[in-house]
Amino acid sequence: MKNIRTHHYVYCIIFMILIVLFATYPIYGYDESDDDKIWVGINLQPWIWWNVSYFFSKDYDEKEYLHYKFERSSLTAYESNIRLSDYGITLGVQIDAGDRMIGKIEEILGYFGYKGFILKITYGNLEGAARWDGTLQPGMSSRFDYKFKFKHYDLLYYPEDFGYYGFGHTAFTIPVRVKFLDNASMSYGTPIYDKNYQVSLYSIIVALDSLSSAVRGVENQLTQPSMGLTLWLLYNVRFGAGKGTLSNEALQWALSANPGKKIVGQKSTVTYLGAEAAIGLAYFFTENSALGVGYSGSTAMIQKWGGGASDYTELGYDTSFQLSNHGPVFRFYLLF
Q1: In the prediction, which pLDDT does 187 show?
Q2: 79: domain range?
Q3: What are the DSSP E strand ranges found in 99-163?
Q4: What is the pTM of this model?
């Protein structure tokens, strides 16, 4: 948590400076009638259910040896930004806290926008405990704590109409089950886990949030403030590719579990599909304030490619997995 807390302090200081600058804005001789805005948003997920699965395991009657227990059973996201219309600049911060509104910081997001472009930087943690039901190698433990660290660097374009799109870089570490296949004998080797499997990739982003767009005054046919009670829809899709890397510790365990073999490369090509979707109803108190309720779900899928054994001395491996969650969501937005 040290790095996350450091970034937390930095963003909080920046956020407080922005508030002071906005509060003293008229002192510097600018016209108060300018269309400068403060945006405030709160997203509450009081319950989150998680699942990690491995592709084709059930098809081949494989046992899912690695079991996860996530600490994050709820999440509250606080977001605020300031838009200085004279300069076309938007500055903002989002802080995500676990444990029903007052928990420790789980994620920090800061962003800077100019005209229709926004640069977003996100750092986060997802912590929990895991249980391994497979064979233990020297140094392995049947139970261990983990910290899934992730970061996103996104450059997004918000056109004047609906939605937004862009591209980004994502990097994270996550514990995964590593299964092995001896191509010569077409038999599975002894699996292990990797507590620090690393993924680094680039992705294309396409997204839409009809509720927040409507509060900001962006017209759309789906969410209409004039109706009072209306429908809202959110989706965020990332598709990309990059590299997955086994830790040195996992390599040692793999050789211990499968003696006489050599692993086919520590790094491999992976493709990534991340998708978030939510739908619900919202009530608009005014054109620029709304309360919404709905249901949200998200998934992140990593598919490893290549890495097959070319002869009996080699051992191919697979680290493909899918991480998903879902739960109800409550949303409040205000623009003033």
Answers
A1: 65
A2: 2-335
A3: 105-114, 117-132, 143-157
A4: 0.80
